[in-house]
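FAQ

Q: What does a record look like?
A: Structure on top, sequence underneath. For example:
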């Protein structure tokens, strides 16, 4: 079930790393950190960071005192960036997918974080396997803080143009104005930087599908949370429903 990681090229990894330096981006990892710290004492805990990218969130967990952090990403180039940026003794970065059920050697973990990894999942079977993987590696009573892009909004060209102006991202789902992208449809997208534009296609996962699957796997509670905003422009754009995101705090 290992998914192809050829999409996650060195060039795209560098673009992602650049995006994390933009001010708007802080609301995403900061929201995860906020809810994680509400649920557990990170100091002395073991953390599994799925889809760790450049390792910034993993490093934040280490700085907060986690005894061990495992950062996992499907992209070799992302892991290379993470290792170069964060050579800490209590953090390990590995190349692997999140979708194959396996017991990690240092688990079970007190906390699992997962940010921007599941919008590449193509169908419900892979989605179930991914959540089973998380469930298996989370200790009883442990917490999952999950954040991802969900395409269950009503499509608005004007809204997408606003998203592009705020975050450099834009999506063009194959639906008419006012329609909701269909579950599992391919949603073409791209990220624009001053000197380049790179394609980043997604599959349309809906928030209710995520919640339904997590409960089916066996998680005892799945609660949607709002972002922790630091910028009024983001409050106005994303609003209380998160627009094209779902942020969940999940308990095993």
């Amino acid at each position: 079930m290992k998914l192809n990681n050829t999409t996650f090229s060195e060039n795209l990894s560098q673009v992602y790393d650049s995006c994390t330096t933009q001010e708007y981006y802080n609301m995403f990892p900061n929201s995860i950190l906020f809810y994680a710290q509400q649920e557990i004492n990170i100091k002395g805990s073991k953390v599994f960071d799925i889809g760790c990218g450049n390792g910034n969130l993993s490093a934040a967990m280490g700085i907060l005192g986690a005894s061990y952090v495992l950062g996992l990403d499907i992209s070799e180039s992302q892991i290379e960036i993470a290792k170069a940026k964060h050579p800490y003794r209590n953090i390990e970065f590995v190349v692997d997918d999140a979708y194959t059920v396996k017991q990690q050697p240092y688990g079970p973990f007190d906390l699992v974080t997962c940010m921007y990894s599941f919008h590449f999942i193509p169908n419900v079977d892979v989605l179930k396997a991914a959540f089973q993987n998380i469930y298996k590696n989370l200790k009883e009573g442990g917490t999952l803080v999950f954040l991802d892009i969900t395409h269950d909004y009503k499509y608005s060209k004007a809204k997408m143009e606003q998203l592009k102006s705020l975050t450099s991202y834009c999506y063009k789902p194959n639906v008419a104005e006012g329609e909701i992208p269909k579950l599992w449809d391919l949603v073409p997208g791209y990220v624009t930087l001053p000197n380049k534009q790179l394609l980043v296609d997604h599959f349309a996962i809906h928030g209710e599908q995520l919640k339904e699957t997590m409960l089916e796997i066996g998680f005892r509670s799945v609660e949607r949370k709002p972002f922790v905003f630091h910028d009024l422009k983001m409050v106005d754009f994303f609003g209380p429903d998160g627009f094209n995101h779902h942020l969940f705090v999940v308990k095993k």
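Q: Is there anything notable about this one?
A: Residues 1-6 have pLDDT under 50 and may be disordered.
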